[in-house]
Amino acid sequence: MASPLFRRAVHAAPIAFAVAWVGVLVLAPLAAMVVHAFGHGLGDVMAALASPRVVSALGLSIKLAAIAVVVNTVAGIAIAYVLVRHRFWGRRLFNALIDLPLATSPVVAGLMLLLLFGPGGWLAGARDLVGEPILFNTPAMILATVFVTSPFVVREVGPLLAAQGTDEEEAAATLGARPLRIFFGITLPKIRWGLAYGVILTCARGLGEFGAVLVVSGAILGHTETATIFIEMSAHDRDPVAPFAVALALALMAAVLFLSMEILKRARRR
Q1: Could you tell me the CA-to-CA distances from 125 to 29, 117, 240 in Å, in that order?
Q2: pLDDT (tens digit, 9 = 90+) per residue, 222-249?
Q3: First-to-last CA distance in the chain?
């Protein structure tokens, strides 16, 4: 029979491994970032964050993430509804393609946009329709951000739609309820938690996007420079404070978003 000490050791070993793993991969880099950011004093950090270039970069990142949230919320609900409620030829392939942005390097996504909208590309004429350049401009950055964040709402909402079934929706339709009333009165309340998680994940991913946006943006200072691009460029310039300060600001935004998700999970359990 195993001794109590051995049983405690067996119980504690996986916990210690998990804590050590998170400490090495998450807490240690975060601590190093904090130390480097505040190594020159709080005043330098605040001055870096208040500079016009950083304000512009952070503002553009927030703008791209907000647009991605709006677009992918509407499209994600619609796609999840089609996948769950309808059966059609090619459905499995279509379902698999939803996860392509998660499996594909963001740099490859940016290259695909270059091929589509660049000279000789299939969609090169879109510039005339939009009235401004697509590549190396905000439209291409929006497309890149929407692409890399597209799966989250679909994957969070889909299982809830499948679990709730169609009985209540069909009963409401039988009683004469219109489709929009059925959606907002029955469907949406039942998927609200999954939708909230999907929105949070989309926003967090959009704020931290780098590869795809870098390829299509041109990294033009004050115009197409996001917060992540600023970090990369200022780090290459060996700025001792600014890249760490901006990285810390992005990490704080992500922490707030995921803390919100945990609060929503607790509210859901109640």
Answers
A1: 45, 8, 44
A2: 788 999 999 999 888 888 888 888 998 8
A3: 41
Q: Which two tokens stand for residue 94?
A: 């279509």
The secondary structure of residue 25, as a DSSP letter, is I
Name the 3-class secondary structure at 176: coil
- Say whether pTM exceeds 0.85: yes
What angle is formed at CA 151 by the lines to CA 18 and CA 211, rounded to 5 degrees? 75
Q: Which residues contact 173 (CB under 8 A, 6 or more apart)?
A: 179, 182
Please name the residue that has the structure tokens 């469907």.
187
Q: For 33-90, what is each residue's pLDDT tens digit?
A: 888 778 777 888 888 888 999 999 999 999 999 999 999 999 999 999 999 888 889 8
Of 8-22, 130-144, 184-198, 199-213, the least confident: 8-22
Task: Say how far apart CA 104 and CA 100 lie, in whole Å.
Answer: 6
Q: Are 98 and 152 in contact (CB under 8 A)?
A: no
